[in-house]
Amino acid sequence: MSAGPDGTDTTGEQASPPAGTNPLVGVIMGSRSDWETMREAAAVLRQFGVPHECRVVSAHRTPEWLAEYARTAETRGIEVIVAGAGGAAHLPGMVAAETRLPVFGVPVQTSALGGLDSLLSIVQMPRGVPVGTLAIGPAGAYNAALQAIRVLALARPALARALREFRDKRAEDVRGEVLPDA
What we know:
This protein has 182 residues and is α/β, with parallel strands linked by helices. The protein is 41% helix and 13% strand. The radius of gyration is 17 Å and the shape is globular.
């Protein structure tokens, strides 16, 4: 199932934000099969309490819809877009060409070239159409969500505090690591 920019039907995780809140982050992907990777982004955003929407928006199968999604994102309250795509991976770049919002591209792992094709497609954007490109696969989706949260935290002190606490907890966990029989 996919959804239009109005929020009807979705890829699964979060159909629309809770009543009275607009999504701040758009998590989009080229096909439903990309959800296995992109659910990581949704999980991080949910962990930080960031309203978001998740949609299938194909650069190749629904180009008009992609343009509409990107052009209307800002007026709908979206502040950052996280776009995952595999193979030719045109989605992040095409979205970036249609909006002034920051776009973070997540290369989805493919069976043909293990995601290298996706990575190269996303990272090789022409001058003037920036896309922040993350790692291939779930780690990239996870970090793309953290990057989106960092952007949002610039104007949201509570979110900035939550990020500091997150980083402090991770540092504490590392300092507490004990190696067996070292």
